[in-house]
Amino acid sequence: ALDDSETPSSSPSSSPSPSSPPDIIPAYLPACQVHLFSGASGAGKTALTFSLLSSMFSGGNFFGLSPRKPAFVGYLAADRTWNDHRIWLATVGLSDLPYYSLIDDSALTGKRLRDRSKGDRFDLFKYCIAGILANAGLVSKADSVEVALRKMPKDSFFIVDPVSLFLGGDLLKYDSVYSYMVDLNQFCIKYSCTILGIAHAGKQKSDPGQRYARAQDRIVGTTAQTGCAGTTMHLAPDTETGKPYAEFTMVQHHAKDVTLKIVRNSDGLFIPYDETQPTPDEQKKQDKLESLAAKILPFLPDDFSEIHINKLVELVGKPKPEGLGISRATLYRYLDALEFQKYIIRGSGVGTWAVKRKD
Q: In the chain, at which residue ranges do the beta strands (DSSP E only) sit?
């Protein structure tokens, strides 16, 4: 039972202030809450997260949405070195970002993390946030954690990657995870900050009968995570969707779910999927086809006269080096590719082709 000192307060100070900061993304990312962004390893969560940060700083849109720039933005990297993340800064056009990397902190060893007498996972979380503030020069490294947190700018926004580390150690225990989600949400209310927690997720099942009905159901662990989160976001790569695009889904308690179709560009960043344009993989296949198709151009008359398909089959079907050693079916694929690229045109007679004159 709760004793008097643990009884939840009913005073107005225990509720979010009416003057709390506006939504980070209108309707989809309310301020002063904990939000989750999940995806399987390698899905592209880091790339998409840095794209969101870039939109915040530049004032640009994020797939049609308009994120605002909070007063302070920090990144808590808990499972990889900061060098692994720094690569994305230049890619998205950011010069620097306040951060704390647990892996890079030699004073915080695995043995110390296992020693619960030094504090629990929420204490570890606060220590890491204080590390961000110290690295940003906002507090002294000699300040205690509590003193540092009191100096945190109002309307701060933190990426916590991954948030799983700070949820008690066993993601399958509802009560334990729930208690840590309560701590994190109350932290957001107390310090007027917002947390975007990167969450681990399982891959979509190949068997349709065992597939997850909702994107948020893929998050590894108990539903206490999603129940206590404001917005749940999930990134499913094309290898999971089985489509030529990835799907980015946002589920908010008080807004309509939205799913965006996105693909990666040559920089590894995500861009909106344009159904009228080929995906990068499709473009590679098309480029390869066109490169191979170009090899039959020397077999067409260079004086723009017409040649019958049967004659072309005879010429290109001969073994190399005299011909190309390709079949009639392959020749038709190559002719279609060259016609699409306007290198050749159909002749006046049935089954005839000619090199297209330049305009």
A: 34-39, 72-77, 99-101, 156-161, 193-200, 231-236, 246-252, 255-264, 270-272, 307-308, 344-346, 352-355
Under a CB-based contact definition with an 8 Å cutoff, are residues 128 and 146 in contact? no
Distance, CA of 316 to CA of 323 (rounded, Å): 5
Residue 275, SS3 per DSSP: coil
pLDDT at 266: 83
Burial of 301: CB neighbours in 10 Å, binned 0-12, 13-18, 19+: exposed
d(CA 84, CA 346): 53
Task: Give the whole-angstrom CA distance, residue 235 versus residue 240.
Answer: 10
> Residue 57 has which token pair?
């700083």
Dist. CA 31–CA 22, nearest whole Å: 6
The tokens for 10 are 């009913």
Helix axes 121-135, 174-191, angle to 10 degrees: 30
Q: How far is CA 54 from CA 51, 65, 236, 310, 350, in A?
A: 5, 13, 21, 57, 56
Buried b (16+ CB within 10 A) or exposed e, 216-240: bebbebbebbbebbbbbbbbbbbeb
Q: How far apart are CA 20 and CA 273, in angstroms?
A: 35
CA 88 to chain centre: 12
Burial class, 24, CB count within 10 angstroms (exposed 0-12 / middle 13-18 / buried 19+)? buried
Query: Side by side, which strands form the sheet with 246-252?
Result: 99-101, 72-77, 156-161, 193-200, 34-39, 231-236, 246-252, 255-264, 270-272
Q: Which of 289, 283, 203 is nearest to 238 (CA)?
A: 203
- Distance, in Å, from the CA atom of 24 to the CA atom of 59, rounded to the nearest integer, reads 12
CA 137, CA 133: separation in Å to the nearest integer? 6
Please state the pTM of the whole predicted model.
0.73
Tens-place pLDDT, residues 159-197: 999 999 999 888 899 999 999 999 999 999 999 999 999
